[in-house]
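Section 3.1: Structural characterization of target chains.
Under the original work plan, the team committed to producing a structural model for every single-chain target entering the pipeline before any wet-lab resources were allocated. The record below documents one such target. The sequence was received from the expression subgroup and is listed exactly as submitted; it comprises 273 residues.
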Amino acid sequence: MPFGILNNIPALQAEGALESTQMSLNTTLQQLSTGQRINSGADDPAGLAIANGLSANIAALNQSVQNANDGVGNLQVADGALSQVTSLLNTAVTIATEASTGTVSSSQRDSLDAEYQQILQEINRIGTTTEYNGTSVFSAATTSIYLTDANANSTITSTVGALSDTTLALNGTSLAGVDGTGAQAALTLIDAAVQTVANDRGTIGASVNRLQDASAVMTTEVQNLTAAENNIMAADIPSAISSLSNLSVLSQTGMAALAQANSQQQSILKLLQ
């Protein structure tokens, strides 16, 4: 190999090796500082694409869990209101039973009927004013809960239905009268209304259970997908620390080698002395 001054090949080789070492060292330092193995598309293009897809799945599932929980909240509000309606109807049963007996006077039946009418008005008020997130709970409209993982979509529907003395077939009923026959007829309808509300609460409960089951499944999916994303994106800290130590030594030796290669050119001057 000629010994000249035109090109310092050893220095170029040392510089190239040092540059490669420095790039690897910078990548390792970035991994340690961010905790991520992939910090740009250049680090692992395929891995980044997969991780981004998983991230979209996780985001969609998290919102779907929230959608399901909102649906549960809406149904629980309805169930709580119907629980109060049940209490009101039980009171109505007591009043109607009392008004049905022959030992109660006409004026007393009128008083009992006045209380009964207040119960019907309260049922109407509950059906009209009960809301969840600004929307009436008791509506004939179907509520659709949208669920997705950013790939497959599905919906869970529920219908609470309207609530009033009319929907409970109690509109126009009265406990007033002389012989208690009106109260007895009303009592039969009130008993049927109690069963109607119980059936409605059962339907609501089934919908709540379904939404909670769906939420549990999606929560498990989020956990598994997060673990998969972490396996792709997360830096192996012990391995990175080991690489950092090795690359630090290589960086120092590379600088020393470059300095030595540059100093060799100075020996040519001695030939000219």
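Residues 45-100 form the longest helix (56 residues).
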